[in-house]
TrEMBL record:
It comes from the Eukaryota. GO terms for cellular component: endoplasmic reticulum membrane; ER to Golgi transport vesicle membrane; Golgi membrane; late endosome membrane; SNARE complex. It is found in: Golgi apparatus membrane. The keyword Transmembrane helix applies. This is Uncharacterized protein. Its main location: Golgi.
Length: 234
């Protein structure tokens, strides 16, 4: 019995190994839980392009990543401190957790960088829209000013046209009076020309009669002279 007592392993090392397994297992479970929370947060970032609380979501994601990194470091330290038959499994789990940590860090940097890019695009879009609105207001004001100027110019041109029409109407009235006077003068001239034509006709007839009278007198005179010459010749 005394030999069995001496051959059996001490109780204290077994208690220490059990405590080590418990600590390593608890840290691994904690790391897995934090990893799932990080995956969930990253999924939230991937699904929500525009978030209601961007700063809070970033802070939560950064805090989860810091906690997961600390847990992985602590897990690797615990694995390195204890020599156990399960150490190979623990080291493999530690390596997997390190790979997961590196991958999650890249995803976090990518998501946050993508968020900053989206935020910048949103800010630029807002500035662009504000600029367009301001430009649109300026364009509307300029358009109204141009329309007002065009209406004023059109009104002035219309006044000029009306004034020109009034002047043309006055000129036509004056020309109508001149034409009436000319018509009256033409009628008077026509009457005078009619009297002159009748007078010329009378004069022509008188001249014709006088011509025949002269011719008759000449013939009669020649007859008298010829008769006297004939009588006196004998």
């Amino acid at each position: 019995s005394s030999k069995a007592i001496f051959d059996s392993p001490p109780a204290a090392p077994r208690v220490c190994m059990a405590a080590a397994r418990s600590d390593v297992g608890a840290l691994f479970s904690k790391a897995e839980q934090q990893k799932r929370e990080l995956d969930s947060a990253l999924g939230f970032f991937a699904e929500q392009r525009v978030m209601q609380s961007e700063v809070a979501a970033q802070q939560r994601l950064a805090a989860l990543l810091s906690q997961f990194s600390s847990t992985v470091d602590l897990y690797k330290q615990e694995v390195a401190r204890h020599a156990d038959k399960n150490r190979v499994l623990w080291e493999k789990r530690a390596a997997n957790l390190s790979d997961d940590l590196a991958s999650i860090q890249r995803d976090v940097e990518k998501k946050i960088g993508h968020f900053y890019k989206l935020q910048k695009e949103e800010d630029d879009r807002s500035k662009l829209f504000d600029g367009r609105k301001s430009k649109s207001v300026d364009d509307d004001a300029q358009s109204l000013a141009k329309e007002h100027s065009a209406l004023r110019d059109s009104s002035s041109a219309l006044d000029d046209v009306i004034g020109q029409g009034q002047r043309i109407l006055g000129s036509l009235v004056g020309q109508n009076k001149v034409l009436k006077n000319a018509r009256r003068k033409l009628l008077d001239a026509a009457n005078v020309m009619g009297v002159s034509a009748s007078l010329v006709s009378v004069i022509d007839r008188r001249q014709t009669a006088d011509k025949w009278l002269v011719y008759g007198g000449m013939v009669f005179t020649l007859f008298i002279l010829f008769s006297l010459w004939y009588l006196l010749r004998w």
